[in-house]
Amino acid sequence: MPFDLLDVQAAAAEAVKAHTVGTHRIAAPEQTLARVTPFLPIMGITRVANVTGLDSVGIPVVMVTRPNSRSISVSQGKGVTLAAAKASGVMESIESYHAERITLPLKFASFEEMRWTHPVVDVDRLPRLSTSAYNPHNPILWIEGDDLLNGGRKWVPFESVHLNFTMPMAPGNGCFLAGSNGLASGNHRIEAISHAITELIERDATTMWRLSGAEAQERTRIDLDSIDDPVCRSLIDRFEAAGVDVGIWEITSDVGLPAFLCRIVEREDLPQQSIRPASGMGCHVAREIALSRALTEAAQSRLTFIAGARDDMPRTEYDRHLDPARHAQWKARIAGGVGLRDFTDCPTSAAPTIEADLEHQLARLRACGIDEAVAVDLTKPEFGIPVVRMVVPGLEGLDESPDYLLGDRGRRALGRSMEKAA
User: Fold this and answer.
1) DSSP E strands: which ranges in 357-403?
2) Contact of 161 with 102, CB cutoff 8 Å
3) How many CA atoms lie within 13 A of 369 on its CB side?
4) Helices (H), ranges, 148-270
5) CA 314 from centroid of its chain's CA atoms
6) What is the DSSP letter of 22?
7) Which residues contact 172 (CB under 8 A, 6 or more apart)?
8) In Å, how far from its chain's centre is CA 79?
9) What are the residues facing 278 on neighbouring strands?
């Protein structure tokens, strides 16, 4: 499809969905790439590599290299087409670049100093580790954003927003979870916000599902034969043809946005095989988009391992996933289970605009007790590429670290799980 800036601007005016295959966007991936490609050298992006052929599955995956990154140098992209995968990877690298180089005004003060004179988020509801250095009387850096649930401006900890991990670290570092969760870019600010919120809800749902216990988890397994979306069916067929078993679980939380976990593993144990099991998660207002994201992310995770270029995967990560016992455990879990849940019973919502999707997302957050959702606009005028970091106190982060401290939602979920097991 040829790049037409006027078409993109017209769609952006109402955030109308113009591309709905595998994802919902106001512009086709080809248009997005044409718009941002002139800026790639300025941001230090030196290579967009198609690594799909390194695997036998054939689901498009790319890696994007930015050697002078201040966080990770290799970003990944996936999609149902190669253009979608390229747009995914390039935009991930672009949003990281923006979060590494924030020039917005900051304040250096303690929470106790800030709360009397500035509207600030409820920091007690932000994800953190048991090793957190946070103290309400110690000064940290703050940055301002828009509270989408209450209106007006609100200050959030800078550590929850930036991705500049160069040394020395910023003052007040080590208080809150730092990472890319809730960072997103898009063809329009509303698209970036919606995508960022979806990611936060996905990670929260993953943690809540993990806390529910093995018996409850197994009840959420999807019957693969019930999946009626043609795009998702074609992705599953690619795994099957490559000799890769697929297991899918619905991990939708009380927020109510459809979310899925996809696990994949080699069907046969061959002597020459050294491919680890992999997984992917996906969330979206539309269940078929949520599932396609989980399936393509699983393919991306597998190829990330095969390519070996990701700079945040240490040797121990490879050793852990190549352990034969772990492989056998995954294989038994995927091949030995039976899907009981019908895909068509999963919640879903479809709207013609991204704006309507966002309104639905915010309504669902309110319904489950979330009362703050702050959007920090990181868009740089010189590029004009919308980039947003969302901070939503009350949602759980990923509980992968043994030092992760569960929030109120997580503690309640764990309590319910323990009661059922007793």
Assistant:
1) 374-377, 387-391
2) yes
3) 8
4) 189-210, 214-218, 230-241
5) 21
6) S
7) 108, 138, 139, 140, 141, 157, 158, 159
8) 14
9) 264
Q: Coil, helix or strand for 141? A: strand
- Spatial strand order in the sheet of 74-78: 47-50, 61-65, 74-78
- The rounded distance, in Å, linking the Cα atoms of 291 and 408 is 28
pLDDT per residue over 155-210, tens digit each? 999 999 999 999 999 999 999 999 999 999 999 999 999 999 999 999 999 999 99
Nearest to 224 by CA among 265, 266, 262: 262
Cβ distance 265 to 237 under 8 Å?
Answer: no
Taking alpha carbons only, the member of 82, 44, 47, 40 closest to residue 63 is 47
> Which residues have a Cβ under 8 Å from the Cβ of 316 and sit 6 or more positions away?
none
In whole angstroms, give the CA distance from residue 96 to residue 159: 14
CA gap 288, 290 in Å, rounded:
5
The token pair that represents 160 in the structure block:
């929850």
pTM given for the model = 0.94
Query: Cβ atoms within 10 A of the Cβ of 373, count?
Result: 28
For 241-286, give the DSSP string: HTTEEEEEEE---TT---EEEEEEEESS--TT--PPPEEEEEE-SS
Class of residue 88 by CB neighbours under 10 A (exposed 0-12, middle 13-18, buried 19+): buried
Residue 187 and residue 211 in contact, taking contact as beta carbons nearer than 8 Å: no
Q: Confirm if 221 and 248 have CB atoms less than 8 A apart.
A: yes
Cα 1 to Cα 100: distance, rounded to the nearest angstrom: 32
- The DSSP line for 48-114 is EEE-GGGSSS---EEEEE-TT-SS-SEEEEE-SSHHHHHHHHHHHHHHHHHHHS--S--EEE-HHHH
Burial class (CB in 10 A: 0-12, 13-18, 19+), 420: exposed
Q: H-helix or E-strand containing 154?
A: strand 153-157
* Closest by CA position to 301, among listed 310, 291, 290: 310
**Cα separation of 294 and 12, whole Å?**
27
Q: What is the pLDDT of residues 106-145, one digit of tens each?
A: 999 999 999 999 999 999 999 999 999 999 999 999 999 9
Of the candidates 183, 201, 114, which has an alpha carbon nearest to the alpha carbon of residue 155? 114
SS3 state at 183: strand
